[in-house]
Please model this.
Amino acid sequence: MKEKKESARTSSLKEKLLMEKFRVWDSLSEEDKVSVTEYAVAYKKFLNSARTERRCVTEILLMATQRGYEDIYKAPKGCRKLFFNSRGKLIALAFTGSKPLSEGVRIVTSHIDSPRLDLKPNPLYEDVGLAILKTHYYGGIKKYQWVARSLAMVGTVVRQDGKVVEIQIGLDPDDPVLSIPDLLPHLSRKQMEQKASEFIPAENLNVIIGGAPYEDKEASDRVKLATLDLLNKRYGITEEDFVSAEIEIVPAEPARDAGLDRSMIAGYGQDDRVCAFAGVSALLEVDEPEHTAIVICYDKEEIGSEGNTSAKSFALENFLFELMEMTGLEATQRNLRKIFSNGKALSGDVTAAVDPTYSEMYEKRNNSRIGHGIGITKYTGSGGKYMGSDANAEYASWVRRLFNDNKIIWQTAGLGKVDEGGGGTVAKFLANAGIDIIDCGPPILGMHSPFEICAKDDIWMCHKAYKAFLSS
Model:
């Protein structure tokens, strides 16, 4: 039996009315494909250096100052490329536009904290001849993913004398690594009967840091003492200095190409440093914006945006007040509200890519797919959109038109089926200030795991989307 051929009229009507899904790779020129590869190299380098929110700020500051950005508190009047650094854990960049601030700004937000293990304030102890560190997990993790893998210790210690000491152990190829041993299968019968959320108790996420004893055989806690002696010789710190420290345990593995075709990148912290890198790199390429273009990278998103370096803080408002003074606009609450109400923003955050192994957890018509471009998430939240942000139709239309006009490959996005998934971003906090905002970022596999996966072409499209937005 011959198949019926579709009429030309039907084909034309489908082309006119139906929404298509595009593969990014199919839309790229050979020159674009080279750019994708080069951009991925720079991004992997950033990921490998920016293992913590503090290291992210350091890397972003380096990128920005090399392109002429200056500290807003030190820059001369009339300087147009400015940065604001809050406590080394939040960074905002601005390129002032030809239009006054009161006519609105363009803001791309992201966050630079990622799920991890933090050392407790009094972490070091000795048991059965081993030196061990106590941790407290940060953000939404699956605890079993953090055992039996190579780990690194990265962070900042502020000693009693005020000296700031940077610690990094386990990232360089010649460094020793740390680890949390898993219980051997032979003794795991009871453990394996427990729920996945319970069989690795949080208090069992203890990191092995040493095993050699101090040379004095009469001393107590000889391994702990020997470990402290090593840390003191290398960093000049004592046990009490852990109290005034922010030391994180992170995966030691570097980000690297994934897939036989090298089409993806696998590595830790891509949620949400991929959007931070895309936003910053996009802003650094913007040329003479009409509206002031701002990229702000927040801390503490993974724990609800609490604290003075989070999206709930007044950091953005403080930065805007300084920008008002720098550009000659009276720094008043009224003008601040004008800036927000006339402005537009993208909440740069990753979205969940459909995982074919667990496809029953996703709503395929609306959730994103790897390699199909940047995901636009009109609304976040969980259940009945609780604790989320929902962009209005007018703004969603504006963003869609902007992306289409600039040949940005995009797709709809969401975080799983309605009553299965859900989650929030920083969008709602900026929306509360009166600005139009929508979530927009690349799809990712293995979100919140120590080894997340993104497609290189999606990352490149994210960069292009943010650049088009910041230039609008």
About this structure: The first helix runs from residue 8 to 17. Residues 45 and 255 are 8 Å apart (CA to CA). The chain has a mean pLDDT of 95.
